[in-house]
Amino acid sequence: MSTPHVVVVMGVAGTGKTTIGPLLAAELGVPYAEGDDFHPPANIAKMSAGTPLEDADRRPWLDAIGRWAHGRAGLGGVVSSSALKRAYRDRLRAEAPGVVFLHLTGDRALIEHRMADRKGHFMPTALLDSQFATLQPLREDEAGVVVDVSGTPEEITDRAVAALRRLAN
């Protein structure tokens, strides 16, 4: 991409945001920030207990991600964030107007299988239904691309890079 964008890798839990984000950042030659690292401890405790976050819980988290993205404007970067609702993406854009979204999506059974195989992550598979219920896919007026998560991480990353390059042109 000619102008380095800040890419928000979004999607429900288990789509591979934490796997694809660093691979994408390496391909684009920009830094990666793990969205989960922006959660306050209270949010992690809630999710670990199997309790979905409420919008009020997400606001400080989204604002922190947005500030990071704003700081990378013109320099490029990749950050992960579920960004499930349009309102969440609007909040991120309010902090960092130039962000583009990479929506990782796929078959629910595949995503659940991948979540079950994860080790040491605080998000239980029990919350997957609430994630899908909350998800509002990207709309045409939102800068972003949708990439399927079937295949290897490298294949997914290649598709993401190609889609983002088409978006930039």
Low-confidence parts = none
Radius of gyration: 15 Å
Strand content: 5-15%
Could you estimate the helical fraction of the residues in percent? 40-55%
Q: Secondary-structure element sequence?
A: EHEHHEHEHHEH
Average predicted confidence as pLDDT: 90
Q: Could you describe the largest sheet, including whether it forms a barrel?
A: 5 strands, parallel
Number of helical segments with 4 or more residues: 7
Secondary structure category: alpha/beta
Q: Can you list the strand order of the major beta sheet?
A: 2-3-1-4-5
- Overall geometry comes to globular
How many β strands by DSSP?
5
Terminal-residue CA separation: 8 Å
Explained architecture:
- The longest helix is centred in the middle third of the chain and has 17 residues, at 55-71.
- The mean pLDDT is 90.
- Helices cover 47% and strands 13% of the residues.
- The N and C termini lie close together (8 Å).
- By secondary structure, the chain is of the alpha/beta class.
